[in-house]
């Protein structure tokens, strides 16, 4: 069934939807697939139910208007997104080599001697990845160095798409 949110009380996590027949239906935020998108006048689809206290709604999905999302200059068609997930992985630190570096004899001798093992914290860092899996067997991967992962997540959570948190 289709409807429109006519009232939402965020502090109490509930609201009301006017259904396609003009009747008001109670809903709780826990029954919304994409809760970050709930707001007054949002268009929704839902499963109608009858409760002891009156009409209600469950399995609520807020409609998202638009065909594409943009993340870090990447244009992604919403209908092509199968799911998205977050994971973390240790990566070697990027080391910059300066051009025209003059190496002193002392530095050269230190390189000839065997190096002591460095602590992992000095050679690796923990990166967070956002992977968007598309239906045509392709994935787009962003790192926390490229984008603000939390901001991208808040936008993706508006969509009725499966999310897996592997952190």
Automatic annotation (TrEMBL):
Residues 1-62 form the CSD domain. The keyword DNA repair does not apply. Keywords: DNA-binding. GO terms for molecular function: DNA binding. It comes from the Bacteria. Gene3D superfamilies: Nucleic acid-binding proteins. It holds the Pfam family CSD. This is 'Cold-shock' DNA-binding domain-containing protein.
């Amino acid at each position: 069934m289709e409807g429109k949110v006519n009232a939402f009380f965020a502090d109490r996590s509930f609201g009301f939807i006017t259904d396609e027949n003009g009747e008001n239906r109670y809903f709780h935020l826990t029954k919304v697939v994409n809760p970050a998108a709930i707001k007054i006048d949002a268009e929704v689809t839902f499963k109608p139910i009858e409760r002891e206290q009156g009409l209600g709604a469950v399995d609520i999905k807020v409609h998202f208007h638009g065909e594409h999302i943009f993340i870090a200059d990447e244009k992604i068609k919403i209908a092509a997104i199968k799911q998205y997930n977050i994971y973390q992985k240790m990566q070697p630190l990027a080391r910059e080599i300066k051009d025209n570096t003059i190496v002193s004899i002392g530095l050269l001798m230190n390189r000839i001697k065997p190096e002591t093992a460095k602590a992992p914290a000095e050679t690796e860092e923990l990166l967070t990845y956002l992977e968007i899996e598309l239906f045509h067997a392709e994935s787009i991967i962003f790192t926390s160095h490229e984008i603000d992962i939390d901001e991208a997540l808040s936008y993706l959570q508006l969509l009725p798409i499966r999310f897996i948190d592997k952190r």
